[in-house]
Amino acid sequence: MLHTISAFDRMGEENAFAVLARATALAQKGRDIVNLGIGQPDFKTPDHIVEAAIKALRDGHHGYTPATGLLQTREAVVRRTLSTTGVEVSPENVMIMPGGKPTMYAAIVMFGEPGAEILYPDPGFPIYRSMIEFTGAKPVPVPIREENGFAFSAEETLSLITDKTRLLILNSPANPTGGVTPRAEIEKLVKGLEKHPDVAILSDEIYDVMTYDGETHTSLLTFPELRDRLIVLNGWSKTWAMTGWRMGWSIWPNEGKGAGLYDKVRKLAVNCWSCVNAPSQFAGIAAINGPQDEVEAMMAAFDRRRKLVVEGMNSLENISCATPKGAFYAFPNISRTGWKAKPLASALLDDAGVALIGGPDFGILGEGYMRLSYANSEENIQRAIERIGAFLAENPAVAA
Question: What is the pTM of this model?
Fold first, then answer.
């Protein structure tokens, strides 16, 4: 065996892709599979965005772009940020990234090393913990509790900060829970962070427009006291149904305590992915600058599906489902069924033809829950709920 560094043995994965591969393989064998596992919109990228990429190719945009992204792409992000948050940022603080994960990677490797601590949401996106462990830093879970509406608690978060804490990762609206943290709670956190001026913050705001029931997203950009230590992650994947385009952006500090961070991430880009391809960037510009009616239609569909999921899952015996306030996920509580979450997820896929993700794939506190993505049709969601109910009726927990 070739000898690789031990860091790779600590690296985890995102099990949603493994479930997707398993569901796809079963479907190719003729099985009828309803996939509520993968976290991507089931809508096509709007036509005007696709056409912008085609035009860019035909116009000869085939070469390298700057490591930070085309200026016009960064300027589009500046305009979009101003329109959604009321905050004006400079293009010189914007990085165009090949998706959202590279921002997580960049921020975590900048601050993570043996002896350091990094706080992250649990349950939360699995790559947070995976990359923290890769760096050798200590991952410190910030509990995301159902009794708190799947919002983080400012008091509990602040209590976990020590003199070893380098980075705090936040995510609202949240994957996998659909929780949205209210502004009042965020304000408490920001106030408390004044006592911890050397802790950087990574705010994952990829689901920023995906809120329901009058909830609104609060960007940490709206707190100027954090700006010199704040990294904001966002992108095109969810809002414009562009997951496969691998288009993300992030906003980095480059002044005060954060002086030099932007240049560090630029160097990382040069060493790792060089740049984001030009046609995708022109598509991204079209997405921001163009009509938003298809985004609004997609959100209206997600809202209808959300209500169907909550009603349907709560109708099943021994399952309860809190109403998600954001993103396109529900996180039903299955603890009263007696099943452990991952065995139940496997059994539902193999025996009932429904793909879900077990809560432990999102963290220690995920046991007793399943992630259900309602990025699928209302008809398929209804079929899935019926299959889940029938399976549980026929398979009591002693079979687990």
Answer: 0.95
